[in-house]
């Protein structure tokens, strides 16, 4: 997908604020500081549209980013922040859960994992929850540039084994710094949202009969 336009739309705190565009949505879930904002910025070739922060737990809403007129990236609040009260964490948990269970336009969840470390208990819990509810997901391992290339596959293996990942789950090795994994991730997203399918379907009835007559 060629990104011609990307814009921040809203920080939503409930369903009443979700966009009404009826576009497919790709959600990003992961621990605080795992690199979700940097991933979004790399995917859309922008340096700072998605706001990064060194303070864990800063994102407390669903941040919507509209890409062309094709889809939304939805950045979910990061989990694993120790400085936030248990009551607040529980509130955010219900908020995220309701979105993931009931948002009809949600097509795929990117479970973002820091490649440098084995998945945390929170990562494992999120993966298990998504699988239990049959939510389509893609595991994205970020910060590959922070470890030697020769150890990439070893770390990917640890991520898969710790999560207990199904072989059917796509896993993308990603680096926001290097651009590694960007094209592969776009391909997965395009398949999930049927990108280009409508155009192909519209063109076929007009072009096929004509070409068939020419060939025979």
UniProtKB/TrEMBL annotation:
Q: Could you tell me which Gene3D superfamilies the record lists for this protein?
A: P-loop containing nucleotide triphosphate hydrolases
* Gene Ontology terms for molecular function: GTP binding; metal ion binding
Nucleus in keyword set: no
Domain named EngB-type G: residues: 22-195
One Gene Ontology term from the biological process aspect of the record:
division septum assembly
Is the keyword Cell cycle assigned to this protein?
yes
Q: Where is the composition biased (Low complexity)?
A: 206-216
**What SUPFAM superfamilies would the database entry show?**
P-loop containing nucleoside triphosphate hydrolases (SSF52540)
Gene this chain is encoded by: engB
Q: Which CDD domains match?
A: YihA_EngB
Cite the HAMAP family for this sequence: GTPase_EngB
This one is known as Probable GTP-binding protein EngB
Alphabetic keyword roster: Cell cycle, Cell division, GTP-binding, Magnesium, Metal-binding, Nucleotide-binding, Septation
Task: For the region Disordered, give the residue spans.
Answer: 197-216
The family this protein is said to belong to: Belongs to the TRAFAC class TrmE-Era-EngA-EngB-Septin-like GTPase superfamily. EngB GTPase family.
Purpose of the protein: Necessary for normal cell division and for the maintenance of normal septation.
Q: Kindly list the GO CC terms recorded for this protein.
A: cytosol
- What does this protein need as cofactor? Mg(2+)
